[in-house]
Amino acid sequence: MCVGVPAKVIEKKEYTALVDVMGTKMEVGILFVPEVEVGEYVIVHAGQGMSIIDQVFARESLNEWGKMARAGII
Amino acid sequence: MPALFEPVDPGVAKELARKVIQLADRYKERTGITPAFMEVCGSHTMALARTGIKQILQGHVRLVSGPGCPVCVTDQKQIDAMIEVAESENRIVCTFGDMMRVPGSKRSLLSAKTDGRDVRIVYSPLDAVRIAEENPDKEVIFLGVGFETTVPVLAAAIQLAAKKNVGNFSMWATTKLVQPVLRELLTVKKVKINGFLLPGHVSIVLGEKAYRFLIDEFRMPGVISGFEPVEMLSAIYKLLEIITDNRPAIVNNYKSVVRPEGNQAAQKIMYEFFEPCDEAWRGMGVIPQSGLDVRGKYSRFNAKKKFNVEVGEPKKTLCRCGDMICGIASPEECILFGKACTPLHPIGPCMVSTEGSCAAHYAYMRKDG
Ligand code: SF4
């Protein structure tokens, strides 16, 4: 019930957006993410976009994990 | 599907797991304590078991499941009342899929449906408003169970019903708030843990600032985590760093999705249509102001006010779901686990829900499995 799914916004309307979730197209509400743009990813929960995924932070985490994994433990 | 856009080198997760174990073992050598962290999100409970992280870290880090599965934390009397609502003619009861097989004292929603009651699974509560519009001669009731991630969506359904003046739509809300229950666990239940793996999705709405009280009142660290193996392992690693340095902090390890102040649009609608109320939690009793119910102004959409539903005190069973959600017992400690209680014949909600700790344990960690 709580699992959020990342979905790519394909088309934006007033209160909803057409998104692509792993190849499946569906309509989700954008009441909580009204500023979302086409091409961005949102986390969807119970039919509503809840958060826009920040791709800069997503990439930063990748680097950080690499660093952690390589880090020596003193 | 990762919340990332570049593939993660699979070696990174493996290496991270090794580093977590090293750091945990050092902590134990130094303090004599096996570090224990509680995950307060049902999706984490499932993801930690499914990805094998719980199993790999066994003996090095104690991962304790907390009150994160929304169905599991729901008090039995409320479950019984929600099933009772479906028992009358001319009603359509809509709910999320997880609720269908939850055992009530007499029966489940699924068995009510099999007997001809109109019980429907919907993906979104807004679908229930549409169903009400399509069935003006029936009362349509949505059973709204969930934490802060879900409440804004429940509020959106009431907003829609109010806007369209759909008089035959109402909601039976049994919602829960994360902050009061964390406080209860630390003060009343006195759980022995070294930190919290904080819930990624609830934090989308609440933001990282919402956990500041853990430091101010309890010096208890917490790391907000996503659900991919590397996200969870790096969050556990950060918790270990924090306790090793003995510098309690709240860290947002899910910055791609969780903002410091949360989702304010969601918070606003949530408090426009809902107000704080005392809520009963399974195994914990009533925690003051630990839930949200439909605001008095919108009580025409509150099914608890609209229908007169009376249920008796639920009969006691040997099910230990109440202990499970407080992190007091593990599934193997319930004498019914895997014997009288299995996913096919669940006795408690922890075995039914896709986020329940007994279901996770049965699917991925059973000793005789
Ligand atoms: S194994 Fe079944 S009966 Fe035991 S605590 Fe879990 S859900 Fe309840």
UniProtKB/TrEMBL annotation, chain A:
Gene3D superfamilies the UniProt entry points to: 2.30.30.140
MF term (GO), any: carbon dioxide binding
PROSITE patterns: HUPF_HYPC
GO annotation (BP), single: protein maturation
Family as reported in the entry's similarity comment: Belongs to the HupF/HypC family.
NCBIfam families registered for this protein in UniProt: hypC_hupF
Name of the protein this chain belongs to: Hydrogenase assembly protein HypC
Automatic annotation (TrEMBL), chain B:
One Pfam match: HypD
An example molecular function term from Gene Ontology annotations: carbon monoxide binding
UniProt entry keywords in alphabetical sequence: Iron, Metal-binding
Highest taxon above the source species: Bacteria
Annotated protein name in UniProt: Hydrogenase formation protein HypD
Organism: Sporolactobacillus putidus
Coiled-coil annotated spans: none
GO biological process, alphabetically ordered: protein maturation
Annotated signal peptide: none
UniProt key word Transferase: no
Assigned protein family: Belongs to the HypD family.
